[in-house]
Amino acid sequence: ETVRHFNPGSCIKLMVDRPSLEEQPRFQRMYVRFGAQKDGFLAGCRPLIGLDGCHLKGAHIGQLLAAVGRDGNNNTFPISIAIVEIEEKDTWCWFLTELIHDIGSVEEFG
Question: What tens digit of pLDDT does each residue of 12-67 get?
Fold first, then answer.
């Protein structure tokens, strides 16, 4: 709520796994895109998105997935990130689905 208050238009989605009502929910995935990132990408970046992932090591393991664009000066512009449990087809599909629903599809801007 703090992010949404200070950065209107932001999108943060959490996915948790709760096997039963007695157990505490376990973190699975998180999608984060700040309002300024969407505005900046749509207003000043080329209509091309680069994707990458990397391992998270330490106390919290998993994968960091990122979507980036290129601005008018050919600089990298961050669009959104996700933290997922493992890098596989299912998690990439989830991330890309969230991204498309969040910023819109190419057909909307064509």
Answer: 999 998 888 888 888 899 999 999 999 999 998 998 899 999 999 988 889 999 99
Burial class (CB in 10 A: 0-12, 13-18, 19+), 13: middle
Q: What's the 3-state SS for the chain?
A: CHHHHHCCCCEEEEEEECCCCCCCCEEEEEEEECHHHHHHHHHHECCCCEEEEEEECCCCCEEEEEEEEEECCCCEEEEEEEEECCCCHHHHHHHHHHHHHHHCCHHHHC
What pLDDT band is residue 95 in, cutting at 50, 70 and 90? very high
